[in-house]
From TrEMBL, chain A:
Membrane listed as a keyword: yes
Entry's localization field: Cell membrane
Primary site of residence: membrane
ABC transmembrane type-1 domain location: 81-307
Domain of life: Bacteria
Record keywords, A-Z: Cell membrane, Membrane, Transmembrane, Transmembrane helix, Transport
Family the entry assigns: Belongs to the binding-protein-dependent transport system permease family.
Designated name of the protein: Sugar ABC transporter permease
From TrEMBL, chain B:
InterPro entries assigned to the protein according to its UniProt record, in alphabetical order: MetI-like (IPR000515), MetI-like_sf (IPR035906)
Keyword terms, alphabetized: Cell membrane, Membrane, Transmembrane, Transmembrane helix, Transport
Gene3D superfamilies with a match to the protein in the record: MetI-like
Domain ABC transmembrane type-1 per the UniProt entry, residue ranges: 91-282
Protein name: Carbohydrate ABC transporter permease
Pfam families: BPD_transp_1
Parts forming coiled coils: none
């Protein structure tokens, strides 16, 4: 640790600079070591493993592009990619629009803001496993609470997590329930919109909806972009909700051994990370899992670059003066 | 040492009242409409948990029915689940993981965040970009080689592969702490330096006390993230039952340990309590922390 740094004032400039360098190195040392061990090395190793056949027991065996060419012939992988793309599109749009809508309503409240904000935010702190089970119970067909409530209006509840067509919308509903963090971010941005802009718009005769459309939205657009990027990353990583919904839906809940529930029903919840996990850690086809991981890395890297550029633009705008 | 410092101007944008609108009929209807929607929203978010709670206190038989309201209140369900599964063991495992990881994070991330926020050095921007990159990386990308390494060290089946990294590097915590430290004016750091503080003293005596709200928020997020983690415990301890965390064990309750809805909902309800308690005690830190991840670049 950095505790060994000297405390005496530096007599010369050269020594001061050397001490400064030593301090930086001391502060950063754990992070640098950690980054190399847990990100640098495994990233390189993933790419290397992706050109091998490896089962964790026998030494890795080079097999060229086999893992990659197999991807094109693997119907389950294509299914997994389709599922993840579904979430990237639907979840991203739904989550951003939903969070924006809720935040816009909360921003207009004049009383009870704290309570309602808390109610909207709390679910996002629940363990994802618990949140999934909550919805699994509430949405269970044949006598679940949602089924009963829909029944009052003469509506039939879908089978949700037992129906290949409804499992993904069901998971999306869970993800919306726990999107409180994004709501808080958007809400803070809305409350941060300069008041004068609203007043100017009001003088021009703009009603609440037009003020929202012409003042609020453009001003908070950088935060909305953050929401989109953040949601895409969330969708790309979607794992826990898919596994738990699949296992609870199949009625064969089991953290180990059996793979029959993964993707239940009919592989409709088999997301890319779930399939990667299945291949790597259930069938111990580490080479193939590494190839999938490499693909996932390239995609999430591209998404991250979008975010970083947004942040750069933002911070340079902040330095340049008010306004984004 | 330095002279006593004034209260730090660490402030996030405060919530502001919207302008008072003219009280006319349209305005009143608008008020009712917005508040009705607001109330409906609050109810929508709260209702699922209310159903979970009501199911948890039902009798075994009633929990299978479509009743929404318990006929009798079986509070003992919350106690009996401890007999049906080794919940105490899982609780201890969860606490071990979350507390040790949070402690490790504080040791490793505070100095790194300080170096990234307040010290000037070549490569600092690149280092910060790498932190963001690591933060955005899906955990599945690096899982294969890491599992391979931990397995050759004989540590799979324990919680150590999950805890150890926090003592060196946790991207999200470094990121969040840096964002907080950026709001501390550089003049405090410079003043400490003029007074002859070493960088380490400046960190411990000036920055850490001033960044306390930020450190609290980061610790809360770290605790909750590890408490809620499912992929990590599944990957490393999935096959060793006595190492399961609550989150991991919970995923198996519906079906394996417990068939009844009331018991599985009782456990579900119990695992959500820590988050609620933490939030009630530290609401400001949470909101501040969340805001910081998104708004400030």
């Amino acid at each position: 640790m950095a505790a060994t740094l000297g405390a005496r004032p530096a007599p010369g400039r050269g020594r001061a600079r050397a001490r400064h360098r030593l301090a930086v190195l001391g502060f950063m040392a754990p992070a640098i070591i950690g980054f190399v061990l847990f990100f640098g090395y495994p990233l390189v190793a993933t790419v290397v493993f992706s050109f091998t056949k490896y089962d964790l027991i026998n030494a890795p065996e080079f097999n060229g592009l086999d893992n990659y060419t197999f991807m094109f012939k693997d119907p389950l992988l294509i299914k997994a990619i389709t599922n993840t793309l579904w979430f990237v599109v639907v979840l991203t749009i739904a989550r951003t629009v939903f969070a924006l809508g809720v935040a816009s309503v909360i921003a207009r409240l004049k009383s009870g803001v704290g309570l309602i904000r808390t109610l909207c935010y709390l679910p996002s702190l629940a363990p994802p496993v618990a949140a999934t089970l909550v919805f699994f119970m509430v949405m269970r067909p044949n006598g679940g609470p949602l089924d009963s409530v829909l029944g009052w209006f003469g509506l039939d509840s879908p089978l949700w997590f037992s129906d290949p067509g409804w499992a993904k919308p069901g998971i999306t509903a869970i993800m919306l329930w726990i999107s409180g963090d994004l709501m808080i971010i958007i809400l803070a941005a809305i409350l941060d919109v300069p008041q004068e802009q609203y007043e100017a718009a009001e003088l021009d005769g703009a009603g609440p909806i037009r003020r929202w459309w012409h003042v609020t939205l453009p001003t908070i657009s950088p935060v909305l972009l953050f929401g989109v990027v953040n949601s895409v990353i969330l969708a790309l990583q979607l794992f826990t909700q898919a596994v738990v919904a699949g296992s609870a839906g199949s009625g064969a809940a089991d953290a180990t051994g059996s793979t029959k529930y993964l993707g239940f029903p009919d592989n409709s919840t088999l997301t890319f990370p779930v399939y990667l996990y299945t291949q790597g850690f259930r069938y111990f086809d580490m080479g193939y899992a590494a190839a999938m991981a490499t693909v996932l890395f390239i995609i999430s890297f591209a998404v991250t670059i979008v975010l970083v550029q947004r942040m750069r633009k933002n911070s340079s705008a902040e330095e340049g003066g008010p306004g984004a | 040492m330095t002279a006593t410092l004034a209260k730090p101007p660490v402030d996030v944008p405060a919530e502001r009242e919207l302008p008072r609108r003219k009280r006319n009929v349209g305005g009143f209807l608008n008020w009712v409409a917005t508040h009705a929607i607001g109330l409906a929203l609050g109810l929508m978010f709260a209702t699922p948990v209310v159903f979970v709670f009501l199911t948890a206190v039902m009798s075994d038989n009633q929990a299978f029915t479509s009743d929404l309201w318990p006929r009798e209140w079986h509070w003992e369900n919350f106690v009996e689940v401890f007999d049906k599964a080794p919940l105490f063991q899982y609780l201890i495992n969860s606490l071990t993981y979350s507390l040790l990881a949070t402690a490790g994070m504080l040791i490793s991330s505070i100095p790194a965040a300080y170096a990234l926020a307040k010290l000037r050095w070549r490569g600092r921007n690149l280092a910060f970009l790498l932190v963001i990159g690591a933060m955005m990386l899906p955990p599945q990308v690096v899982a294969v080689p890491l599992y391979d390494t931990w397995s050759s060290l004989g540590l799979t089946g324990t919680l150590w592969p999950l805890i150890a990294p926090y003592f060196l590097f946790d991207a999200f915590s470094i990121f969040l702490l840096r964002q907080f430290m950026l709001t501390i004016p550089q003049s405090y750091v410079d003043a400490a330096r003029v007074d002859g503080c070493s960088e380490f003293q400046t960190l411990i005596r000036i920055i850490v006390p001033m960044a306390k709200p930020g450190i609290a928020a980061t610790a809360l997020f770290c605790f909750l993230f590890t408490w809620n983690d499912y992929f990590g415990p599944l990957l490393y301890t999935g096959e060793v039952k006595d190492q399961w965390t609550l989150s991991l064990a919970l995923a198996t309750f519906k079906g394996m340990h417990i068939v009844q809805w009331n018991s599985s909902m009782a456990v579900t309800f119990l695992t959500m309590i820590p988050a609620v308690v933490l939030f009630v005690f530290a609401q400001k830190s949470f909101v501040k922390g969340i805001t910081f991840t998104g708004v400030k670049g």
